[in-house]
Amino acid sequence: MGLIVYYSSRSENTHRFVAKLGLRAARIPSSGADAFHIREPFVLVVPTYSGDDGKGAVPKQVIRFLNDAENRGHLRGVIAAGNSNFGETYGLAGDVISQKCQVPYLYRFELLGTEDDVANVKHGMERFWTREQL
């Protein structure tokens, strides 16, 4: 199965979600993200940082990481966390990355995710990576 690459802030919500998946994962550092390199296909898990206006949805560290052409070239899909209280901007970071990098937006979950979200992502990743190998 492929790699999960993720960013998590001090709240650690995304980190806790990824840990529950039990899949191979690498965390984008809070500083030095532009020097962090991934050399294999991965799915990105990213929190959404926007409020009602949608500005700043993608964390700056993720932007720096994806500005590296090699990192971006290995990106195969995106999963976003968000807060449904923000309405239309819920999980907006996934929409932005999907559109800009031309990869599928695979899933969105709220805050820490539920047990169902964990099961859905684990099952979805198995299916996704199996299809990727075809």
TrEMBL record:
Q: Which Pfam families match?
A: Flavodoxin_NdrI (PF07972)
Recorded GO molecular functions are: FMN binding
Gene3D superfamilies for the chain: 3.40.50.360
Which SUPFAM superfamilies does this chain map to?
Flavoproteins (SSF52218)
Name the job this protein performs: Probably involved in ribonucleotide reductase function.
PANTHER family (UniProt xref): PROTEIN NRDI
Family to which this protein belongs = Belongs to the NrdI family.
Q: This protein is called what?
A: Protein NrdI
- Origin organism of this chain? Rhizobium pisi
